[in-house]
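User: Sequence in, structure out. Go.
Assistant: Echoing your sequence, followed by the C-alpha cells.
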Amino acid sequence: MVKMLLALARILRTKEVHRLRIIAWKQSNRASANIPEALQYLGSHSSTLNESLNRTRRAVYCICVNFPVPGPIYDDPTDHDGLVLIRDPSIPSHVTRKLVSGFQEFTLVDKEVSCRFRIRMNQRGGQQQYEYRAAAFSGVRSFSGVATGGNRVCAVFACTGDDLESCGRRFKNFSINSTASFEELTIIATVPKPITDTAVQAHDSSYFPVSLDVSIMPLEVKEYTYTEESNGETTNYTFTLNSNKELYTFAVWGRIFERDGLEPTKPLHDSSSVKGFSNILMILIAAFMVFK
C-alpha cells in the first residue's frame, strides 16, 4: 500500500491523484474503502499521501477477490515419507492420559490449566496404528534451542507407540487407515483470563486452535468450531471437531509472553535422575555384598 501511494505521488500530477478512485465493494472501515475519500482532499502530493496513509493506519487493508483462486493444495500423504518434522521438546513435561477406543470424558490439570476432553474414538484397522494421548501443559518450552517461551496447552496428539517419548512423531512411511477415527472430539481449555499489559496495550497471553492432518495441513475453518467465553477470572476456549478427519494433532495452544526467556520446564519423569538413583542403588548393593 505504501509503495503504491509513493509511486502515485511520483508519477502523477496533483489533479490526476485527486481524480484517482479505488472501487471497493461497499462503504466500510476497511482501508480499501477509505482511500478514495482520502484522495479527494485538496492539497499537494505530500498532503494527499499523508492523509491516505493516515486512513490506511486506521483499518486493516483488505483486498477483495471476486474470482476463483487455486488452493489450498493438498499433497498426497505418501509424498511426505521420510519428512522430518520438528517435535515439541516440552512433550515429556505434559500431564497426559492414553486414549482408548470408544467414548471417554475426563479432565487433566497442570497448575492453572484445566483441560476437559470429550472423545469418541475408534481405530480404522490399518497395518500400523497410531496411539493417541490427551495432554495438559503449563510451563516453558524451547523453540529449537534458539529461544524459550511460555505455553499453556490442552491437546490430543498421535504417538507411534505406548510411551510418551513416541508422541509427536510419525511413522517413517505413510499407510492407509493408520490414524484413529474421531466421531466426537471436543477440548475445553479453562485458563486464567488474559490481562491487558498497559505498557504495550496488548494481552499477556493469546490462544489459538491448532490442528494437523495427514497432509501436514491445518483443518479448514468449516471443519471445526472455536469459541471463547469469559467466566470471571478464567476464560474457556472450546475447540470442537466438525468432521471426521485423519488427525495427528488437535489442540488449544496458548502463548504466555511473561514467561519468555525462562528455563524450559523439566520433564515430569527425568530419566537422568532415575538413572542416577539406579547407579547409587547398585553401588550400595555391591558394598553390602562385599562387607556382609
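User: And one key feature?
Assistant: The chain has two domains: 2-57, 87-268.
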